Amino acid sequence: MKRFIIPLLLPAAAMANTTTAYDVIHSGDSTRATLFLICFIAITIYFVRQAANGYDEKSRRRLKMYAFAAWLSLPVSLFAALGNFASGKNFHGVIFLFYLLITARFLFNRHMENKRLIKKTEEREREVKDEVNQIYDGQLPIVRARKAIIRDGEIAHFSESAKLVENITTGYTSGGASVRVRVVKGVSIGTGRGRSRAIKENAIVARGELVITDMRVIFAGDKKSFEAPLTKLTSFESFADGVIFHISSKSYTLTLDEYDARVADAILTALLH
If you average pLDDT over every residue of the chain, what do you get? Predict the structure, then answer.
């Protein structure tokens, strides 16, 4: 709810800040000026911290809104600083001016950092796309496994961090109330409490390394591990950040980095087809 309410209040907050700054500066009331200064700085810090969460594709619009509010505080700070200097309140003017410079520097640094992150993401996207195209052309990479033991004559084509996810029981729902049936006056029979039901959720049960070789699929985890020859792999399902292996009557779900999942899908497709 907060992510929807706060952006709607940003324009109103900006107008209120500007109006309040004008009224406070010309009121001659040092107490009101000090309170406004404290509130203004607190609100600006909140917007700056929200805007400084870094580049995130899923929440990019929300981060842009917070960044806009933080940048909007700069002219308000400048207006308040100049107004305080003009009315002889040099102390408040210096504080507003100093805070203006710090906020501008911080926002500029965050803007440049986000640009670097975007550039890095785009470069990684191009690298993965080129690697996937090479795999489909028959040029499979050769890597070294970090934890899994590779047999003689076996070639590892993929080795990246992965998490094993299983649907496990995390709790139980309470049973229903007991039911009593009246037989005759003063005599009733209870049917007992209803049965409780298990609450199941997907949870990470092991962290380790997924290795795909020309012979096997291996997951070397800290708590659980598995391996299977490619010939016993019934099928596999790829999704945005992971893969599901169907081996005989069992299924194993592994989550990976989004880019690693794309490479793993390409290698499995090349090996099995």
Answer: 75
